[in-house]
């Protein structure tokens, strides 16, 4: 997952919430419908929510370079992730699954992840054991 | 009157005794050369633009921008000429303008494909005083156009801030990754 792979030249616009943050910080690579680019950029639709329903998956999405190194604050990053799931996959969110919060983001994003592919593969395997898994091959 | 004449005469003679015509020409030459070089000195446009628009993301920033853009808004290139690098929605572009390459400001020239990933930023439109979200997509699959090279990259950050750097070939995720030119597609209005 390479959330926030594209750039944003924010400056003149006032903060307008997670929808605009998604447009400026994520959409350049992940696309207007969070569909990604097959084989190049992982989708967030039908994918992020599956990470979100799993504790290891939650830590993973907060540590991928695009998310962890983004210019968004912890609270803004949490809000964008929650917005993406609400926008594209509200129906798949587990009944007891909490939303991302500022403190959870702060606790995970600052721990560097050396092997993104290996970590993703391990997390996908764990999620697949309990239900539908996010897209593989990234 | 004679006293005034004597005063000027004595001061002129004194100056002539103390200095040579050659030294005067030398000093004058240095002044002229120095004044010609002043416009060539580097100017921190980024800092000035940020100072005018306020801290990033502040509500006051959006309100102050129209005043900051007032000077620019009087130029036709800034408001109307889509083949000019000064055109308002090119504020964060880095590449050849597709409007000079057989396409338009927002459509790729025939024979090229729009990049599937892009740089997205915001620009201020002086016509209505609003900020807009603009996607800068590269057009891919043909060799570089070479016309109307436009490098503005307002609010770009150095390469170590990769998510805020535009020195990227956005054709990288396309099948044909040759870069031809860049379009500026308005995605919507920015701000609250």
In short:
The complex is a heterodimer of chains A (138) and B (192). By secondary structure, chain A is mainly alpha-helical.
Describe the structure.
The complex is a heterodimer of chains A (138) and B (192). Chain A is mostly helical and 138 residues long. Chain A is built from 8 helices and 1 strand. The N terminus of chain A is likely disordered. Chain B contains 6 helices and 6 strands. In chain B, strands 2, 3, 4 and 6 form a 4-stranded antiparallel beta sheet that branches. About 15% of the residues of chain B have low confidence. The chains are: A mainly alpha (138), B alpha+beta (192). Chains A and B meet through β1, α1 and α2 of A and α3, α4, β3 and β4 of B. β1 of chain A pairs parallel with β3 of chain B.
Unreliable stretches covering 5 or more consecutive residues of chain A: 1-14
Report the average pLDDT across residues of chain B.
81
Q: Helix count of chain A, per DSSP?
A: 8
Please report which band the strand proportion of chain A falls in: under 5%, 5-15%, 15-25%, 25-35%, 35-45% or over 45%.
under 5%
Mean pLDDT over the full residue set of chain A: 88
How many beta-strand elements of chain A?
1
How far do the termini of chain B sit from each other?
75 Å
List the helices and strands and how they pair.
The complex is a heterodimer of chains A (138) and B (192).
Chain A: E1 8-9, H1 18-25, H2 27-30, H3 48-52, H4 55-63, H5 65-68, H6 74-88, H7 102-109, H8 116-128
Helix pairs in contact in A: 1-6, 6-7
Chain B: H1 2-18, H2 21-37, H3 45-53, H4 59-68, H5 70-73, H6 76-79, E1 94-96, E2 113-114, E3 119-125, E4 130-140, E5 149-151, E6 179-189
Notable features of this structure?
heterodimer, A: 138 residues, mainly alpha, 8 helices, disordered N terminus, B: 192 residues, alpha+beta, four-stranded antiparallel sheet, two-stranded antiparallel ribbon, 19% strand
